[in-house]
Write a structure and sequence with these properties.
Layout (H helix, E strand, L loop, with lengths): L2 H34 L6 H13 L2 H6 L7 H18 L3 H19 L2 H6 L1 H6 L8 H25 L5 E3 L2 E3 L4 E3 L7 H18 L3 H32 L7 H27 L19
Antiparallel strand pairs: 1-2, 2-3
Helix pairs in contact: 1-5, 4-5, 8-10, 9-10, 9-11, 10-11
Amino acid sequence: MTPRRLRDLALVCVLTAAVLWVYGGILSSLVRQWASDDNYSHGFFVVPLALYFAWERRADLKAAPLEPSAAGIVVVAISLAVLIAGLLGAELFLTRISLLGVLAGTVLYVWGRGHFRILAFPLAFLALMIPLPAIIFNQIAFPLQLLASRAGELVIGLAGIPVVREGNVLQLPSRTLEVAEACSGIRSLVSLVMLAIVLGHFTERRLGRRVLLALAAVPIAILANAARVAGTGLMSELVSPEAAEGFLHTFSGWLLFVVAFIGLVAVQRSLSGPDPRSTLAPDVRPREVGA
């Protein structure tokens, strides 16, 4: 092992210990929320994926020159100020988001701008593990509830079943369906956006296509959830009221998420276009021309 690699390994160990000492309690509360809140259970996959994205850049990191930047100290100082503000104001989002700033500033200060550019994507990807503030979450979830209930009302009405919508509540002949927060679709939305980012990373080289793929995940997730709400209403009327509850309700969510992911893959294929190799003529060998 070269002296530089020994130095980098020692620095990583020291910095990891320092981060765990400062953020240990914050990280433990974050993991507990992943385990208890289904809206953010995808957080368990974010950290391993971010580490993999950093590992696959190991050759570039090894070749990048060491150019420590004093700007990293400024970033770390601002991030620690955000941490203190979050602790004083009991604001979990600020304390958690400050960790990303500390990590970014540390890379910038210890290794330099080149290393920071190489690790920018893995560091940014970590933001997906942090739950949104409640005020922002509610501003997203409630409109999604209304959108899903409106879609359900439209589809159920087109099927000839009488339905009356009051906000996010659907009045059907046999029962009342409420499109609760858990049925807003925000859970599948966040998970599908994360999958779109990962899919784009592995399949697309152009940043523009990756961004388009991530953006496409939003309407796909919304349509899938609207279909789930409409399907639940139809099944509860045409089959059995129990179809809107228990295993069937949960299974429909998983099934439509798979369908949404298939739709995402279809969008990725359309962005990539046809394989150039498939358009080649079967025989492209040069022909000899006689004298």
